[in-house]
Design brief:
seven-stranded parallel sheet, alpha/beta, four-stranded antiparallel sheet, 378 residues, globular
Length: 378
Amino acid sequence: MSHTPSPSRGILIEAAELRIVRLPLITPFVISTGTMTHKVIPLLTLKGEGLEGIAEAVMDPAPDYLEETIPGAMAFLRDVLLPSIIGKRFASPYELEPYLTPWRGNHMAKAVLEMAFWDMWSKSLGIPLKAALGGVRDKVDVGVSIGIASHEKTLARIDEALAQGYKRTKLKIAQGHDIKLLEAVRKQHPEIKLTVDANTDYSLADLPVLRAMDAFDLDYIEQPLAVDDIHDHAQVQSALKTAICLDESIRSASDARKALEMRAARVINIKVGRVGGFANARAIHDVSAAFGAPVWCGGMLEAGVGRAHNIHLATLANFTKPGDTSSASRYFKQDIINEPLEAVDGEMAVPTHGAGIGVTLDHDYLATVTDHVEDIKA
């Protein structure tokens, strides 16, 4: 029989389930580093005292976006992280820190564990995750991210997104797929809120091209240079009128502080999976606010569980730019949750089906898209 544990006693984590889910994308998603036709998702469920906390991990099968991979993360979770916490009681997500910080890197593996416990903990308190995190709004502004395609397809996708009311259009760009694309888009849509995301495809040698982007009234240029190069981003930012937004380069509050002190960026993209969980995401949010730098919530083509986590995070006060959490139906014919996460007039409502992240798994469909599942017990 399920029951609600006493908050003062904390929650006993009794077991966990690790699952690999493979969801086909409606349209292949193309960025500068490659093409994705399916989203492969490690899904973690923590179990204890009649409660379950769920979260998606965001690493890729191969080290594409960052160096973490699904095979490595599954082994790290199965063999190291989960055995270290199963059988133990935790009064808050912050009590997980001693079990996560000794290990170098692996931010995404750490994040999925921490995020699942945030869901579990807020359920134990009977409150939405938004309230546990300190969120201040019931809906969040969202935009769309449009992958690399022909100019004609891109313009058609922009038209569709604008008709649906999205509040920001982000274009994926790459060397040779940039200035002419922006010329075509601005000719047809001179006033829309427009950004570009290079996913690290440029270098200082491309500074003339990046300077040329100043002419297109972009809200920001996202991550033009290498993952680990805050220094050269500072040189680019000093040469441009357009704001630089850092994504892959920011994995901690310390990274955010250094980047903002060096004036390497004026906007920060926070992805909770990239930075190791909600505790770090909140710290980056607070550091950015102290510097007067707005933040927004980036996306990793998450399914419904990950999207729900992102929506709750984006209710924090300094998330003042539209995020990437657009309607799930733009990417998947069917989601792994029962509750539809669909934007209305460019706004995504915080899901409210119960406490925690406010969504529930569609177990019947989940079984049909699961490649692998394993249980971890004490």
